[in-house]
Design goal:
microsome, single chain, 63% helix, 35 helices, mainly alpha, Leucine-rich Repeat Variant, two-stranded antiparallel sheet
């Protein structure tokens, strides 16, 4: 065969010298049809050797006959005989070596054939294909005529191969194409990015490393030329792989997402819901996935900063927001967030982001839409998912708060659907989650965007009676002021909107249905609300609602809780001072409102009178206690009140005991409490205190004409204490009837059990 190939070479050279094209084609046709494609294996081997010999003889003219030379050789790549496949590989190597750049128009068929040989089980064939592969890479590297557009569809198809060798072959070619200056593979990255991430999950460490390097090189190019990157086309691909089960895939995709958000900025906003779906669960990862958690946190924070007040100014259902890109602005659409010049992806440097690198951008107008409905749906879904971690729930609540600050008008469209889950979140086990939840609820209750004309809450019980009105202080500045609040701005504001009263009603309903929540977190929740909102409005509205509460036992418990908070919490220092003096009509109105509800609990009513220095009325109330049913719970509350009197909060009351002449009813009221108590530690405590009251004759002063401060204030307050006392009796009669009814039902139940 070798001798004949030499003879064939001489014959072909003669035809070339004679420019006898027809004879050359005839020789190639015979070698192809009668030998290379023959049924006999030896004939096929001879045909392959002959075709290679023809190519060598043709020299630079082989490019004219490449189609006829290559096709039969590629057909033999599929031969069952491994030896014959090796001959085919050798023949094609010789053909390509002679033709060099002329084979590029046939690159796709050559690549397709080589990708099959890369996975060949025979080591000799595989070795031969590697030689041919290197030769073809050299030709592509040194040529500037490579048809990348025609090649991408084939690469996109082959990149999804599951064979390790085929994957290695694909990655090696991607690395080569990336290294060629004249080939801009970055333009076609969206076509192959998904396949690259799938290869990143290969079982072979070598292939994973190669793919990691390739992705790292792409990311470097993206950072260098962000203005030419098709971020939007790759966003959803990253979202998918950010949720991968494989840690390396997830971490790499998350790093890419971090860079995309910082480089593309607001271009990524339309994909916010998908990004949050992928990022939020990662925030609750433990230390085993610490790297992923850290990068996810950066993504979350960067994405949150992209939402700006301007997103609230246009109706997203009608048109998308259009902003002019500004090269100097960090929030421009082409360059909202600057690029990070961190290490390459192969090193997975997620510890920190270095100083931003600005990139030039065009002044073209780019349309960007904030998909608020999608974002809220994702956040709502995560809040409903009881399996998510604490940090994820906190992040969701931070997002809701941020959206209410930046886009209040649009967010209030979703308030009715979000309100129930926000109330349920108050039962969360984490104090941090409850704090963030309260911030969101407080912002909803105080934002001017929630103010509606003639708002009638959905709950029929929300209608308030005329005599007791909720005090709503005015505040300058309307909706526009909400947009100026920062990311970490406190929602504290004395302004209450239409949702405030609804919030108070539903909060009390939740306390009523979840008594454990009231016992364990009730005081904590109310104290935090007093910091976030106006404490006077909170107590005024709750007292107003409790006045109409049908569950009298709950009303008594809730009043006791509110009274304890009022008397002991440092957050309510100003409110206590306001009530202690009753100097203003507002403070007197508040006292009357609180008193009417405090009547649900006799002991708390007395403590309110002590706080407001209404000692005569406190004495009158204690006189009525003789008509009440004295229970263990009642005595326990009296005991607690005695303990409170000894606390710093009632220092002024104890000092007033020195002025016996001007505070006779204070002493009588305390003696009344003493007479109610059994011989207990509280009895001894109060008894010792009263023993310290000085003799009025020893305390006599020369100024006998000075009237009592307490009487002077009371006479000027215009408070109808007789009416308040009647109200107290009326409420206590209701409680007595309710107790009798409960006792009757319990007795009937006992009888049924006996029967």
């Amino acid at each position: 065969r070798r001798a004949l190939s030499s003879s064939l070479s001489r014959l072909v050279r003669e035809f070339v010298a004679q420019n006898n094209t027809s004879q050359i084609k005839h020789v190639i046709q015979i070698l192809s049809q009668e030998f290379a494609l023959s049924q006999h294996p030896h004939s096929r081997k001879g045909g392959l050797i002959g075709l290679a010999a023809c190519s060598i003889a043709l020299g630079k003219d082989s490019g004219l006959y490449l189609k006829e030379l290559i096709e039969p050789v590629l057909t033999c790549f599929n031969d069952a005989d491994s030896r014959l496949r090796y001959y085919a590989c050798e023949a094609l190597y010789n053909i390509v070596k002679v033709a060099r750049g002329s084979v590029l128009p046939h690159f796709n068929v050559l690549f397709d054939g080589l990708s099959k040989l890369a996975a060949d089980p025979d080591p000799n064939v595989k070795s031969g294909s590697e030689l041919l592969d290197r030769l073809l890479k050299d030709i592509v590297t040194e040529s500037n005529q490579f048809d990348l557009v025609g090649f991408i569809p084939l690469l996109r198809e082959r990149i999804y191969s599951n064979n390790q060798y085929a994957r290695q072959f694909i990655i090696s070619w991607i690395l080569v194409l990336e290294s060629v200056p004249d080939i801009n593979l970055l333009d076609y990255l969206p076509e192959i990015l998904d396949g690259l991430f799938q290869i990143l999950g290969d079982n072979s460490k070598e292939i994973r490393k190669m793919c990691e390097v390739a992705l790292g090189e792409f990311l470097k190019e993206i950072k260098k030329n962000p203005s030419s990157v098709k971020f939007a086309e790759m966003a959803n691909i990253l979202v998918i792989h950010c949720q991968a089960a494989d840690d390396l895939i997830q971490l790499t995709a998350m790093c890419w997402m971090r860079e995309f958000i910082q480089l593309a900025g607001r271009v990524m906003l339309p994909y916010s819901s998908g990004i949050l779906t992928a990022v939020l669960p990662c925030l609750s990862y433990d230390d085993r996935k610490k790297n992923i958690k850290e990068v996810a946190n950066v993504c979350n924070q960067s994405l949150m900063k992209l939402v700006i007040p301007e997103d609230d100014e246009m109706d997203e259902a009608k048109q998308s927001m259009t902003l002019l890109a500004d090269p100097t602005s960090q929030e421009s659409l082409s360059k909202p967030e600057a690029a990070s010049s961190g290490e390459s992806l192969s090193e997975l440097d997620i510890a920190a982001l270095t100083q931003p690198l600005p990139f030039p951008c065009s002044s073209e107008r780019i349309q960007v839409t904030l998909n608020l409905d999608g974002i809220v749906q994702v956040l709502d879904c995560h809040l409903h998912d009881t399996s998510i971690g604490m940090m994820t729930r906190i992040a969701v609540l931070k997002w809701l708060y941020h959206l209410y600050i930046k886009t209040p008008r649009k967010m209030f469209r979703h308030t009715d659907s979000l309100f129930p889950i926000l109330l349920r979140t108050l039962s969360d086990e984490s104090d941090e989650v409850i704090l963030k939840d309260l911030e969101v609820l407080a912002e909803i209750a105080s934002s001017p965007a929630g103010q509606t004309e003639g708002h009638v809450p959905s709950d029929g019980s929300d209608v308030r009676p005329g005599p007791v009105e909720l005090h709503v202080p005015a505040r300058a500045g309307q909706l526009s002021s909400s947009g100026t609040k920062g990311l970490e701005c406190s929602p504290s504001t004395p302004t209450m909107n239409s949702y405030f009263y609804k919030f108070m009603i539903n909060l009390l309903k939740r306390f009523s249905s979840e008594r454990k929540l009231l016992e364990t977190r009730g005081a904590f929740i109310i104290r935090q609300l007093c910091l976030l909102l106006n404490a006077e409005n909170i107590f005024h509205s709750m007292a107003d609602i409790l006045l109409r509460e049908e569950d009298l036992k709950f009303a008594s418990t809730m009043v006791h809780t509110l009274n304890t908070i009022l008397l002991t919490s440092s957050e309510l220092f100003q409110l206590r001072n306001q009530l202690k003096d009753l100097k203003t009509p507002e403070s007197r109105n508040l006292f009357c409102c609180l008193y009417r509800s405090w009547c649900h609990n006799p002991v708390t009513t007395v403590s309110l009178c002590f706080l407001t220095q209404n000692y005569k009325h406190a004495y009158d109330l204690i006189q009525k206690f003789g008509d009440l049913e004295v229970t263990v719970d009642f005595l326990t509350e009296v005991d607690k009140l005695v303990q409170l009197i000894e606390c710093p909060i009632f220092t002024y009351l104890r000092l007033q005991l020195l002025d016996v002449k001007n505070n006779p009813y204070l002493i009588k009221a305390l003696y009344g409490l003493l007479m109610l108590l059994p011989q207990s530690s509280a009895f001894q405590l109060l008894s010792h205190r009263l023993q310290c009251v000085p003799n009025p004759e020893l305390m006599q002063t020369t100024d006998n004409t000075k009237p009592s401060a307490g009487f002077k204030r009371a006479s000027a307050s215009n408070i109808d204490y007789t009416e308040l006392l009647q109200h107290f009796e009326k409420v206590q009669n209701k409680h007595l009837e309710a107790r009798h009814q409960r006792a009757g039902r319990a007795e009937q139940l006992d009888r049924r059990v006996v029967l």
